[in-house]
Amino acid sequence: MISLKKKSFHSFVKDSFDSIFNKRSAWIIFSSFTRIIILIAVNKIMTKQLDFQNLSSYYLVISIYNFFGSIIIGPFGEYISKIFFKVNSKHSISFFLESFYKRLFLPFAASALILLIITLYFYFGITNNYFLEIPILISLMLIFRGIFDQNISFINALGHYKWYSILITFNALFYFGFSYLLTDYLRPTYFIWTAGFILSNIIFSVITIYFFRTKAINNKSVRKFLFNPKLLKFVPSLLITNLLVWFLTDGFRFFSEFKFGLKQSGVLLLGFALASQIFSIMSNFILPIFSPNLLKGYSEKTKVNRYLSIKNYFIKIIPFLMLTLFLALIFSKLIISVLVDSSKISKNLLIIFIIGLLVEFLRSLINVIKNYKLSESKLIYQVYSLILPVSLLMASYFLNIESIVTFALYVLVIYFVYFSLSVLFFLRLKKTVH
Q: Using an 8 Å Cβ cutoff, are 310 and 371 in contact?
């Protein structure tokens, strides 16, 4: 039985903000401020350069990338995060990570390339360039963005916060520079814009690999990444979870394009994407500060210590999520006017943005709850909580929803159901700790 001291909400908020006042946090927060400015510039230029059809195509590429990245590679990446500190304490982490990338990223990227070419060829035909353009973009993103995302999180986890701040900021800056210049001098299409994103990630993924080889402390003992029984036991439930989560977070875009067409769905996707970016900004500020302790919490030997680590993380994160939602709702009109070119602003976009903020708030809470299930390797509970929400989304295909705003509200209802079920299964799992 665990005895936990009760704290007031004021104490929780005070503890959360006290945790970010140190030199490490100052570096990360300054980096995040810089990236906010870059993000504003990226959104402003992208919504000016690309029409709604190209914006829809861009978000389609991101959805397909998220599918392969989160469903196929994601479970293995989360397994690596779970064992990262155990491996690093005994073996060369540089050697281990590179063997992981070679054995997983390269084969899956090649498989995705072939699969997408075949699928999109039959869907669009040879007269449409999608069947070649999208597979090329996705396969390159899987390799280079995947390597950068994994490496940069581990660089931060190992305490190299200065390098983390510098590399992640300059990657965003190079992305903006390359995409702007390429679309300005060549053609303003989704393919050219995404190519700038990929080019930046190629450069900085190579830099992070070099960092691990030269800056990180690597033990002489080497260990290869292997598809061992523990991994094969861990991955299936996470793979199913990520598949269902992707269906909720990205799959609805395909439903919207089918129901409303590229132009109308472009408004819906832009509104939800902007809401997602607002919470991503908060994540860029706060999560890098607290995530190293979360990763260490995964390695705790007892259920009690793992629970306390996740609980401490949850308590520190919640005030920032609430503050983000509150401020974003108050300044929603200003945010839209700053982030979006005037030619794309409409009443529907503002309403969908506000709905999207509520969706992102619920999704952020669900992700925090998911961390505890991950630490206990009990992700089957997350699968159970996803069955009904996914069924509701699939039902939208048969419903007569004529307005994109109504469809956005329907998505919000689905996320509320998902959140409620996640909490119920979390409470059930929590009983085993006490």
A: yes
Phi then psi for 189, rounded to 5 degrees?
A: -120, 165
DSSP string, 357-425: HHHHHHHHHHHHHHHHHHHTT-THHHHHHHHHHHHHHHHTTTS----HHHHHHHHHHHHHHHHHHHHHH
CA-based end-to-end distance of the chain = 5
pLDDT in single tens digits along all 434 residues of the chain: 344 445 555 555 555 555 555 677 778 778 878 888 888 888 888 988 888 788 888 888 888 888 887 777 776 777 776 666 666 556 566 777 777 777 777 887 888 788 777 777 666 666 667 777 888 898 899 889 988 988 888 888 777 888 988 999 999 999 999 999 999 998 888 999 999 999 999 999 999 988 887 876 666 666 666 666 666 776 777 777 778 888 887 777 777 777 777 677 778 888 888 898 888 877 766 777 766 666 665 555 666 666 676 777 777 778 888 888 999 999 999 988 888 878 788 888 999 999 999 999 998 888 877 766 665 566 677 778 888 998 998 888 787 877 888 888 999 999 999 999 888 877 776 665 55
From residue 286, alpha-carbon distances to 21, 188, 191, 384 in Å are: 12, 34, 32, 29
Nearest to 235 by CA among 361, 89, 71: 71
Q: How far apart are CA 48 and CA 52, in angstroms?
A: 10
Please count the other Cβ atoms lying within 10 Å of the Cβ belonging to residue 270.
27
pTM above 0.85?
A: no
Return the HEC string of 323-360. Answer: HHHHHHHHCHHHHHHHHCCHHHCCHHHHHHHHHHHHHH
| Own/partner long-range contacts of 122-129 (Cβ < 8 Å, ≥24 apart) | 129/191
Q: How far apart are CA 28 and CA 36, in angstroms?
A: 12
